[in-house]
Amino acid sequence: MMQLPNNVTIKEVGPRDGLQNEKTVIATPDKIEWINRLSRTGVRHIEITSFVNPKWIPPLADSLEVATGIARVEGVTYSALVPNMRGMEGFLKANLDEVAVFMSATETHNQKNINKSIDETFPVLKEVIDAALQNGKRVRGYVSTVFGCPYEGRTDVKQALYVSQKLLDLGIHELSLGDTIGVANPVQVQQVLEVFLREIPADRLAMHFHDTRGMALANVLASLQMGLTTFDGALGGLGGCPYAPGASGNVATDDLVHMLHGMGVATGIDEAALVASAQFMQDKIGRPLPSHTLQTVNAC
């Protein structure tokens, strides 16, 4: 029998990563209501928006209104993506709990996503991280295209590790490793983690899988076998990357929780409340969402 952890932490990224690529514009009150519903499911970490220039991510143009409009629940961490010091101003006005910073493991995707080289990105993020820490906020880091890039192909694990270690050195407390275009497979996941775990403790790593080729849950299982216990998910399977053509949604939080509970791994999340929250956003978007759990519910 494989060794599985007793507990796993799920970090919900649907309100940010899930909605940033949606063509349907979700009204601000509906975003707020959705986050409030998520807060009551037992999820303990919700990434609610991004303080990015609205011209780059129009669906998240209401970041400050959303961040100041939600009803915060004690014990839930509310975070937002902050790309630069201008975004940091909005974050501090909202007074959320945690900053998220992001960059890519490959040069071409980083240029497409941030319009800077990898080495040019570090000083920008250092300013954000320093400001967050000075204001008593924790910082989470995302590294995209860890397993493969839409422009460069398979990512060199040494390059991904270089970017990751640099972010940790700058002061982030946790690193989320992203399979941005959903090309990873379980063997590759374990090979990459073997390299990372020689340098970085498992409790400082999280996994962020997309389900482009239906591999996300299998990759979660491979990560669990390597000792990883923190995973990002987007309710209903929402998501995608504006700068990664063909990237589909994140691993569906509802499918992930269903799998973990079925294997006897606790998450602290109320599955029925989670599905009801997914149905709420599905109705607002106006189309069936891709999670298997919702497909089953929709068929009933």
From TrEMBL:
PROSITE patterns, sorted: PYR_CT (PS50991)
CDD domains: DRE_TIM_HMGL
Pfam families according to UniProt: HMGL-like
Protein keywords: Lyase, Metal-binding
Residue span, Pyruvate carboxyltransferase domain: 8-275
A GO molecular-function annotation: metal ion binding
Any Gene Ontology biological process: L-leucine catabolic process
Tree of life domain: Bacteria
Family: Belongs to the HMG-CoA lyase family.
PANTHER family: HYDROXYMETHYLGLUTARYL-COA LYASE
Protein name, UniProt field: Hydroxymethylglutaryl-CoA lyase
Native source organism of the sequence: Tumebacillus flagellatus
